[in-house]
Amino acid sequence: MADRTGLYPGTFDPLTNGHLDIIRRALKLVDTLIIGVAINRDKGPLFSLEERVKMVEAEAARVSAGRNDSIKVVPFDTLLMSFAEEVKADYIIRGLRAVADFEYEFQMVGMNSFLNAEIETVFLMADPHHQAIASKLVKEIARLKGDITGFVPQAIAAKLTEKFGN
C-alpha cells in the first residue's frame, strides 16, 4: 500500500490545543502529515509567518517525539488545491467544531473537489474539550489579560503574553 499523505492547512495564529488534537488524530490516518501554514494576509495575523511556522514546528516535534511520525511544516501562499497537488497530498484534513464550521467547509469541499476530485477531504470532529477554542478568541482573551493556559500550549501562551505585553 502506498504511503498516505495528509495536508492540514490553516493560519495557526496561534496554534491551539484544538489544532494539536486534530494533528494527533490525523497522524493515526496518514503516514506523512504536512501542516500547511497559510500566509493569508487578509486575516491580518498577529504573528508573522516565520513566528507561526516556528511555533507549529516546535509543537509538532513535541507531538511526534519518540514516534516515527513524519510531520512537515510548510508555509504556503497559493490556492489550497494547488498546494495540495504540489505536496502530493492524498487527503486534506479539516477540523470541525460546530455547525457553522460545517457549512463553510461543505462549500469548500464542493469547490475543492471541482478543482481536483482525486484529493479527498477528511473531517475530524473536535474533541468536546476543545470545541469552543478558536484562535481569534484566544487572542482576544490574551489581549484582555485573561487566562489562556487551557487553550494553548505553555510556550505559545508565553508568546501571546509577550506580544500583548502582559
Mean pLDDT: 91
Overall number of structural domains: 1
The strand line-up of the biggest sheet is 3-2-1-4-5
Low-confidence stretches: none
Which descriptor suits the 3D outline? globular
Walk me through the structure.
This protein has six helices and five strands. The protein is of the alpha/beta class and 166 residues long. The protein has a single domain (5-129), classed as 3-Layer(aba) Sandwich (Rossmann fold), CATH 3.40.50. Helix 2 links the parallel strand 2 and strand 3. The model has no long low-confidence stretch (mean pLDDT 91).
Write the layout of secondary structure elements.
Layout: E1 5-10, H1 17-26, E2 32-38, H2 49-64, E3 70-76, H3 80-86, E4 91-96, H4 99-115, E5 120-125, H5 135-143, H6 154-163
TL;DR?
This protein is α/β, with parallel strands linked by helices. The chain contains 6 helices and 5 strands.
